[in-house]
């Protein structure tokens, strides 16, 4: 049995001191939003509690579906790189970027360069290359194929949308088909929810129909996303049967907010092609904010 833990929207804090030049951009809106809203509810200790619990459950792999930082300043990107290194072996943690990781033009490239060991496929070059597409990537762990996709793009102020383009769609289909032919359980990681109506218009994913076609054509057994800071379950049409699309609360969300407290999903994957067995448990921060407890027996149960 393979155990896969899923967290998202880490939003490592607190915010560093930024120069006037750094704030003279879209970052000023995020800076104000952080100090008015996010800093009241996002706590680093909460993230530590989740990670300790994941370790206690002996997860084989950790999937992080984006938004490691807040404003994608250089200091934040380097701090996130140090946080990733502290998690352990890059082979045991897979990351895809979120909109906050590409907050302003140029931030995406800086983030991917700094976090490259966690966002590159098994056959990718060992060193970052400026002119090379990273996504989608493929990592094979036991009987599981992890396919990482990116929707992270810089957007104007007051927008947080993502983009899934034709080139990435074609490559993802080919990757999923090859993984299926190899008899692997296919997990797709993406930041924005690939579900119409799952979030507001200005936070939506552009390319939802394209992504749905990828899943129905290429095949997959599980899709993981973040972005909404909500614990959600949707379904997309698959080649043989519907594919679960699972979202998760922010890994740094403290109690007392309108959004659910921090949580992680733990998936157990077993079986073989045509007879895969998938179950998922959710573990959430308690009301006191000092422990992580099981929220439900099976997140796929009605």
Automatic annotation (TrEMBL):
Gene3D superfamilies: 3.60.21.10. Keywords: Hydrolase, Iron, Metal-binding. The keyword DNA-binding does not apply. GO terms for molecular function: hydrolase activity; metal ion binding. InterPro entries: Calcineurin-like_PHP, CNP_phosphodiesterase-III, Metallo-depent_PP-like. Residues 3-229 form the Calcineurin-like phosphoesterase domain. SUPFAM superfamilies: Metallo-dependent phosphatases. Belongs to the cyclic nucleotide phosphodiesterase class-III family. This is Metallophosphatase.
């Amino acid at each position: 049995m393979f155990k896969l833990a899923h967290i998202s929207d880490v939003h490592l804090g607190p915010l560093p001191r930024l120069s006037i030049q750094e704030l003279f951009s879209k970052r000023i809106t995020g800076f104000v939003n952080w100090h008015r809203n996010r800093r009241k509810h996002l706590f680093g200790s909460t993230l530590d509690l989740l990670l300790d619990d994941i370790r206690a459950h002996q997860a084989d792999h950790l999937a992080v579906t984006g938004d490691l930082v807040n404003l994608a300043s250089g200091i934040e990107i380097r701090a996130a790189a140090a946080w990733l290194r502290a998690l352990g072996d890059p082979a045991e943690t897979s990351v895809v970027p979120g909109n906050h990781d590409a907050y302003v033009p140029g931030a995406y490239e800086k983030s991917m360069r700094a976090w490259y060991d966690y966002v590159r496929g098994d056959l990718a070059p060992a060193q970052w290359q400026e002119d090379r597409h990273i996504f989608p990537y493929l990592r094979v762990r036991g009987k599981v194929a992890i396919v990482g996709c990116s929707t992270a793009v810089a957007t104007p102020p007051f927008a947080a949308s993502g983009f899934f383009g034709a080139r990435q769609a074609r490559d993802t289909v080919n990757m999923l088909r090859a993984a299926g032919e190899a008899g692997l359980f296919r997990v797709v990681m993406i930041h924005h929810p690939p579900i119409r109506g799952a979030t507001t218009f200005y936070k939506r994913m552009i390319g939802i129909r394209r992504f749905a076609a990828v899943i129905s054509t290429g095949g997959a057994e599980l899709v993981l996303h973040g972005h909404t800071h909500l614990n959600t379950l949707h379904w997309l049409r698959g080649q043989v049967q519907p594919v679960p699309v699972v979202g998760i609360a922010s890994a740094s969300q403290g109690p007392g907010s309108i959004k659910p407290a921090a949580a992680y999903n733990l998936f157990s994957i077993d079986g073989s092609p045509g007879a895969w067995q998938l179950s998922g448990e959710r573990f959430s921060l308690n009301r006191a904010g000092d422990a992580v407890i099981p929220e439900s027996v099976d997140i796929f149960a009605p």
